[in-house]
Amino acid sequence: MAEKKTTKKAAAPKAEEAKKTTAKKAAAPKAAKATVAVNAENAGFKAGDVYQALAAAEKALTVKEIAKAAKISEEETLLGLGWLFKEGKLAAADDKVTLA
User: Fold this and answer.
1) Do 53 and 70 contact (CB within 8 A), yes or no?
2) How many C-beta neighbours within 10 Å does residue 60 have?
């Protein structure tokens, strides 16, 4: 009988350690959001990404759809859209954007 108690006691700390490890993994801090570099070079590259996505789609897209098609964040999409709107290369209607 003494052997069974020893075995159970040895197994119990392992179970407690596993719970602590799981708790630590669940409490890990979330990664910070990536920042968008706002400069002329980056804005130009993002404008190119947005333009290519709209040209490939051949239809009006929302900001989310453009971001997904161009594989960039929505913030980067807005940066590129601003550049293209300033150049007069885009038209907007009903919350969608298309090439002018």
Assistant:
1) yes
2) 18
- The candidate with the shortest Cα–Cα distance to 77, out of 52, 46, 51, is 46
Orientation angle between helical segments 74-86 and 63-70, nearest 10 degrees:
110
Quick one: which of 41, 68, 45 has its CA closest to 56? 68
Q: Alpha-carbon distance 43 to 19, whole Å?
A: 47
Per-residue confidence in pLDDT tens, the chain, 100 aa: 566 665 555 555 565 655 555 555 555 566 666 677 888 888 999 999 999 999 999 999 999 999 999 999 999 999 999 999 999 999 998 999 999 9
Which one-letter amino acid corresponds to residue 63?
V
- Taking the C-alpha atoms of residue 98 and residue 33, their distance in angstroms, rounded to an integer, is 28
CA distance 60 to 85: 14
SS3 of residue 96 by DSSP? strand
